[in-house]
């Protein structure tokens, strides 16, 4: 999926609305960003006077270049990046979230009911890493939370996700962690593998957030961000209020390479399990993820909420809905 922008919403003959450009850079194109795509397609940003344009750089860490160059007003990605950079290189401030849960799934060979993580000790787990470190960070945190030493498993995680998926189906490793869409599509296509865990059920975590370089918020920047988050919150509400089956044609346009029944099923799974809640970052989820990052040595110790997150804009947007 390449770069994209909000759709025009004025009717024929109507005087065009003068819109303020708002440039967003994102680390990928994912189902867990769905409310943003809905807000773009349904004109929610344009209702707020914003012409939102999105660029997805390759490689993904080009989002940091866009922020440094001033070609992007905001970046969308994992909160582990602003945490990792804090006090080491550049300072970034998180202003809001879109995904409140982990969008991954764990595949295993064969079929079976239930999974005890302790039973994975001694196994080999394949994990894609092309989009950053989040996959390994979350899974190893989950192991520690369940009393399993991550070092008691072996990992293959330095290869492309598609390559690892093909190798897993060909016999490499015991488990494979990938995004929920790809996992379900693989399980439906291949009877020799099944989904052992859908991680959206594993508690709150600020998985995908909006951030920019730390700097004083001018009234103009605050106002633009507030309008962005008002529209984003409307996108979240819209998704939560509509069963995915009712907008399957739109989902098919958004994710044309995935079987539509899979997209509908995963979208409803995310709707039911708290993937999308609000634009505000949960303190409990933040603290949990910070502990996970500290245990993984990405940060020396967990940061306080206020050191990374400025929730004032998101809170103002929530109150303005």
Automatic annotation (TrEMBL):
Q: Provide a Gene Ontology MF annotation, just one.
A: transferase activity
RNA-binding found in the keyword field: no
Q: Name one GO biological process term.
A: thiamine diphosphate biosynthetic process
Please give the Pfam families that the UniProt record associates with this protein.
NMT1 (PF09084)
Q: Which of UniProt's keywords are assigned here?
A: Iron, Metal-binding, Pyridoxal phosphate, Thiamine biosynthesis, Transferase
Subunit arrangement?
Homodimer.
Name the family.
Belongs to the NMT1/THI5 family.
Query: What name is this protein filed under?
Result: 4-amino-5-hydroxymethyl-2-methylpyrimidine phosphate synthase
To which species is this protein native?
Answer: Cladophialophora psammophila CBS 110553
């Amino acid at each position: 999926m390449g770069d994209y922008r909000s759709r025009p919403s004025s009717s024929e003959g109507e005087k065009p609305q003068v819109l303020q450009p708002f440039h967003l850079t994102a680390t990928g194109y994912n189902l867990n960003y769905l409310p943003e795509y809905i807000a773009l397609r349904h004109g929610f940003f344009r209702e707020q006077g914003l012409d939102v344009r999105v660029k997805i750089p390759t490689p993904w860490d080009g989002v940091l270049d866009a922020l440094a160059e001033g070609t992007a007003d905001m970046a969308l990605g994992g909160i582990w990046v602003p945490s990792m950079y804090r006090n080491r290189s550049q300072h970034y401030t998180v202003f809001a979230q879109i995904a409140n849960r982990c969008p991954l799934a764990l595949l295993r060979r064969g079929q079976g009911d239930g999974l005890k993580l302790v039973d994975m000790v001694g196994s080999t787990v394949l994990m894609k890493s092309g989009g950053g470190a989040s996959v390994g960070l979350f899974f190893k945190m989950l192991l520690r939370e369940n009393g399993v030493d991550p070092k008691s498993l072996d990992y293959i995680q330095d290869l492309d996700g598609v390559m690892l998926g093909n190798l897993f189906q060909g016999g490499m490793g015991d488990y494979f962690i990938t995004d929920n869409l790809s996992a379900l599509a693989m399980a439906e296509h291949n009877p020799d593998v099944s989904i052992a865990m859908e991680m959206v059920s594993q508690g709150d975590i600020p998985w995908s957030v909006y951030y920019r370089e730390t700097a004083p918020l001018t009234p103009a920047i605050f106002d633009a961000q507030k309008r962005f988050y008002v529209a984003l919150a409307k996108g979240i509400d819209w998704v939560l209020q509509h069963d995915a089956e009712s907008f399957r044609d739109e989902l098919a346009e958004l994710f044309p390479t995935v079987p539509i029944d899979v997209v509908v099923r995963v979208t409803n799974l995310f709707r039911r399990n708290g993937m999308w809640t609000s634009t505000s970052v949960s303190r409990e989820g933040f603290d949990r993820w910070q502990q996970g990052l500290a245990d993984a040595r990405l940060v020396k110790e967990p940061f306080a909420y206020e050191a990374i997150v400025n929730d004032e804009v998101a809170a103002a947007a929530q109150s303005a809905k």
